[in-house]
Amino acid sequence: MTVDAWLEAAIKDAEARGLPDLKPLLEALARAMRALRAADFDRPC
Amino acid sequence: MLTIEEFGRRLRTGATTSSEATEACLSRIDALDARLNAFILVMRDEARRAAQAADEELAAGRDRGPLHGVPISIKDLFDVAGTPTTAASRVREGHIAAADAPAIAHLRQAGAVLVGKTNLHEFAFGTTNEDSAFGPARNPHDDTRSPGGSSGGSAASVAAGMALATLGTDTGGSIRIPASACGIVGLKPTYGEVPLDGVVPLARSLDHAGPLALTVTDAWLVYHALVGRPASRAPAPLPVAGLRFGLLRDYFCDVLDDEVRMQFDAALGRLRAAGARVEEAAIPHAALIAAVYLVVSFGDAGAYHAPMLDRVPERYTTPVRLRAEAARYVLAEDYVRGLAARDALCREVDAALVGCDALVLPTLPISAPRIGASTVQIAGVDQPVRQLMLKLTQLFNLTGHPAISLPCGATAAGLPCGLQIVGTRMQTETLVRVALAVEGALAG
User: Fold this and answer.
1) Which residues form the domain of B271?
2) How far apart (Å, rounded) are the C-alpha atoms in residues B338 and A37?
3) Whether pLDDT at B221 is above 50
4) Looking at the annotation, which residues of B are catalytic?
5) Which residues of chain B have a CB within 8 Å of the CB of A25?
6) What is the mean pLDDT of residues B83-98?
7) Are B161 and B252 members of one domain?
8) How far apart, in Å, are the Cα atoms of B337 and each of A12, B76, B174, B316, B331?
9) Which residue on chain B is closest to A21 by alpha carbon?
10) Do B157 and B256 fall within a single domain?
11) How far is residue B317's CA from residue B305's CA, in Å, rounded to a whole number?
12) A37-to-B41, B44, B73, B158, B330 alpha-carbon distances in Å
């Protein structure tokens, strides 16, 4: 699942559950997920 | 303020008793706690009984060691038999602990007198202590400010003389952050050293328990009791001259309040003047620490909170409920990436420690924030309080290295700053010997 697809689905689910205020937290989580997926820990910085 | 060491000397020369020290703490609680809100439960009767028993034991020739008769407060995440473990949350209404957590049992065996259970950020899920079912705890240095969190009531209780030491937990910095904000010492031992059975979890793979106290020696004495091996005295400090410190500057010192930076640089200057060597060290993937911490801590916390969020979501404070709900959305594949990244960060901290006795960095980039502030300005730029408060401590929860915060000067407004020292895994005693040396050099 791509991060974009995950974020879209998560926001939709949160809104359906009456939790629209989750959006900024989910966006922060999406930024963290993107950073982790882009990282290469085997490659020296 | 009375240290455990000084109390012990006076106790054994007959200059004071446990009952006197306990009454002094209870009087401070009566005088100050309406303002500071450090305690959720004050155990007056039990404390008086335990103090009297400690005095009787000593009179009969039984000395349990350095914590004999010492009044200590307990973060309200630990089970204390017969009392509620609230975690500062209405979610746990009606809970009564059937037995002591092993850490509490160890403290009692060492002779400690439990004076009460302290306020915290609800479920330890925050760094300011603002979100608590019992209202915010306040900083004894300025009651419009946070004492830090999540062990905020614990730190406030020691800084205000309401206990001689306290027991806290640390998942992203929750011992070291309030220690720094309140101007006391906070020790996070190596991961796994202090038992966590009977402690409400935040993120089990990151949770640590440990002491907050007025001095490094006091913290050491409580730590040793917590691990079930009471020490008769603290180890000797290592000589400052010749100590080698790895300074974590890149990323860690990029965003610091000017006064915090000044106090930190002054502390490094004193260490150098005393003959210590301070050389720059680096964590190559430091820029990813916050991302790794968020994914791993949320993954762990989401699993724990899911059943309660399904059953009684309305009982959470709103900010903690939102955090716990967001935590449930972490994907397994990203959690596994987070664990792999965590292993890599662990190797990087190990590598930074090669050739060093310890790493050194500030504990907090800012002094205690105002209660209710979501941002703080540094160099004209608004910075989010929560992320800032975790920024310098969370790495060592991911990696499990022992870390200690010591007082390191204060701002012009009198708000304490903290210096953080990080040691090699499973070498908490060596870290404490370094910290004793640093404490001496900064005081001299």
Assistant:
1) 244-288+332-443
2) 9
3) yes
4) 75, 150, 174
5) 322-323, 326
6) 98
7) no
8) 25, 33, 25, 30, 10
9) B322
10) no
11) 13
12) 45, 53, 43, 43, 13
A9 touching chain B per CB within 8 A: no
Q: Which residue of B has its CA nearest to A31?
A: B291
Q: Cβ of A22 under 8 Å from any chain B Cβ?
A: yes
pTM of the complete model:
0.97
**Angle, CA of B422, B38 and B82, to the nearest 5°:** 100
Judge whether A43 lies within some domain. no
Q: Which residues of B293-326 are buried (b: 16+ CB within 10 A; e: fewer)?
A: bbbbbbbbbbbbbeebbeeebebbbebbbbbbbb
Task: Report the Cα B69 to chain-centroid distance in Å.
Answer: 22
Span B295-351, pLDDT tens digits: 999 999 999 999 999 999 999 999 999 999 999 999 999 999 999 999 999 999 999
Instruction: Give B331's contacts in chain A (Cβ within 8 Å).
Output: 1, 6, 33
What distance, in Å, lies between the first and last C-alpha atoms of chain A?
27
Give the residue ranges of DSSP H helices in B175-257: 176-182, 216-226
Q: What are phi and psi of B280, to 5 degrees?
A: -65, 140
Under the banding of pLDDT at 50, 70 and 90, the label for residue A43 is low
Same domain, B34 and B137: yes
Return the closest-CA partner of residue B225 out of B114, B316, B312: B114
Same domain for B104 and B188, yes or no, is: yes
Interface residues of chain B, partner chain A, Cβ below 8 Å: 284-285, 288, 290-292, 294-295, 298, 318, 322-323, 325-326, 329-331, 333-334, 337-338, 340-341, 344
How many domains is chain A partitioned into structurally? 1
Say yes or no: B184 and B249 in one domain. Answer: no
Residues B280 and B426 occupy one common structural domain: yes
Q: Are residues B11 and B124 in the same domain?
A: yes
**Residue in A closest to B321 by C-alpha:** A22
Domain range for A30 is 3-38
Assess if residue A15 is contained within a domain: yes
Write down the number of H helices and E strands in chain A.
2, 0
Strands (E) across B171-248 are located at 185-188, 208-213, 244-248
Residue B205 sits in a domain of what CATH number?
Answer: 3.90.1300.10
pLDDT of residue A44 exceeding 80, the answer is no
Q: Assess if residue B185 is contained within a domain.
A: yes
Q: Looking at the structure, do residues B124 and B184 belong to the same domain, yes or no?
A: yes
Judge whether residue A45 has pLDDT over 60. no
Out of B294, B331, B344, closest to residue A28 by CB: B294
Residue keyed to tokens 């004495």: B221
Residues 6+ apart with CB under 8 A from B262: none
